[in-house]
Amino acid sequence: MNLKARFMRCLEGKEVDYAPVGCTTTYGVVDIMKKVGAERPLADTDPQAMATLALGYVEAGFEWCKAMGWDITAVSEVMGCTLGEPKIDLQKYIKEHPLAENLDGLTYPDNLFEQTRFPAYKEQFRILKDKLGDDVAVFGETEGAWTAACNLVGTEQFMKWTFKEPDKVQQVLDVTQEVVTDVANWAFDQGADYYVLAEPSSGPALMSPRIWKKYVQPMLTAMVAKIKGPVVLHICANTDMIIPFMCETGVAGISIEEKADMKQAVQTAHEKDVRVFGNVATATTLFMGTPEDCYKEAVASLENGTDFLTPGCGIAPGSPLVNVQQIRKARDDYFKLG
């Protein structure tokens, strides 16, 4: 079976011969950029450079490919957020929150897919699908509706509203979830095989499980029901307390960091027919650890039952490529692949 067939079978909960290796979020690593000759900031806006860097998944030893750039700000940008300029080792980032003072500018963007970076994403998808065909899975990714709302309003302000002004919370979410749902479906129309919703602003470090269940779970459940292909939900930090809720949203998979208990997450997720991605530490092990550290942590993730062996989050740009490559080496050794 080819790489895409194995990936999709695994995502569907079917038996595969070994765990696929890849990255659930971003792998815009400087070492990969230099190897393939596609560096940020050009690779953030030019579709050919975007695609060239995306195809650098092979340099890392990964087995599936990312479309839609190297950050999770695309929805926030098209809805009015000002972004900071990227550098080779710095992603685009949220610089200003347009709805911090009032919600007067809250609206569904006109001609959404003709604005900002979406035309470049469309061309990148075309290049990747022409190159990879049905041999390798390609995924799209943006921030989720909750994180987009936090970017528009300001995270601290938006969290305060969950207690003091819930009507405003829902007013913003009504728009962001419509936009993100449409973006995900657009990605499937371009050929995406699955879609990642990244919701770092909904992590337990920022909100309680009770608030997550009240606001985020019903929002995600409604969105996933309208999205036309499989969704993987990524949330940062220790998600142990909300993993059951994450798995009840209808997603095909969840992506977790090293702070979460992989063994327990797998047990919970499999009971709900959900697959798990993770969870080699990015900020510590892959970025600052030794190759041996990375190898050992990858083996531990496999021993704890991960379905897809991946970094726990987006890989820091300055991470040594040799560290990243240990993930594939650990998988190959674990399953005794030639």
Q: Describe it for me?
A:
The two termini are 16 Å apart. With 338 residues, this protein is of the alpha/beta class. The model has no long low-confidence stretch (mean pLDDT 97). The radius of gyration is 19 Å and the shape is globular. Helix 4 packs across helix 7 and helix 8 packs across helix 10. The protein has 16 helices and 9 strands. Helices cover 48% and strands 11% of the residues. A 7-stranded parallel β-sheet has the order 1-4-5-6-7-8-9. A two-stranded antiparallel ribbon has the order 2-3. It has one domain: TIM Barrel.
Annotation keywords:
338 residues, two-stranded antiparallel sheet, 48% helix, alpha/beta
Summing up helix and strand content along with how strands pair, one would put the structural category as alpha/beta
| Number of alpha- plus pi-helical segments | 16
User: At CATH's second level, what is the architecture?
Assistant: Alpha-Beta Barrel
Count structural domains.
Answer: 1
CATH topology group: TIM Barrel
Radius of gyration: 19 Å
Q: What's the overall geometry?
A: globular
- Tell me the name of the CATH class: Alpha Beta
pLDDT < 50 stretches: none
End-to-end separation in angstroms reads 16 Å
Arithmetic mean pLDDT: 97
How many strands?
Answer: 9
Task: Please bin the fraction of helical residues.
Answer: 40-55%
Profile the largest sheet: 7 strands, parallel
Report the sheet-strand fraction.
Answer: 5-15%
Strand order of the largest sheet: 1-4-5-6-7-8-9
The helix-strand sequence is HHHHHEHEEHEHHHEHEHEHEHHEH
